[in-house]
Amino acid sequence: MHIKKNVFENIFNTIMDVKGKTKDNIRAIMDITLFYHRKTMELVYARSRVTKLKASFALEKNTQVIVYQ
């Protein structure tokens, strides 16, 4: 039961883009671009900061509000 709960929470938090709870971190994105050559998932290097683009599977803020209601 705990495995099912943990899997659900990991997928839900990643799709809802919950800050600090998502498994879609910078190291995961670096692996995806290294092994799978996904241009849409590459990191953005701007000045001294490294940022990640929002994942295509993550919901927008207005859609997240609908799901929470």
Explain what this protein looks like in three dimensions.
With 69 residues, this protein is mostly helical. It has one domain. 48% of the residues lie in helices and 12% in strands. It has three helices and two strands, in the order ααββα. The protein has helices at 2-15, 26-36, 61-68; strands at residues 43-46, 49-52. The chain has a two-stranded antiparallel sheet. A hairpin with a 2-residue loop joins β1 (43-46) and β2. The two termini are 26 Å apart.
Number of domains: 1
- How much beta, percentage-wise? 5-15%
SSE pattern, N- to C-terminal: HHEEH
Taken from the alpha-carbon principal axes, the silhouette is globular
User: What is the number of helical segments per DSSP (H or I, 4+ residues)?
Assistant: 3
Runs with pLDDT <50, length 5+? none
State the separation between the terminal residues, measured CA to CA: 26 Å
Largest sheet: 2 strands, antiparallel
Mean pLDDT: 77
Strand order of the largest sheet: 1-2
Number of strands: 2
Helix and strand content put the structural class at: mainly alpha
Considering DSSP H and I runs of 4 or more, what fraction of the residues is helical? 40-55%
- Which value, in Å, is the CA radius of gyration? 14 Å
Summarize the structure.
The protein has 69 residues and is mainly alpha-helical. It has 3 helices and 2 strands. It has one domain.
Q: Mind sketching the topology for me?
A:
Elements: H1 2-15, H2 26-36, E1 43-46, E2 49-52, H3 61-68
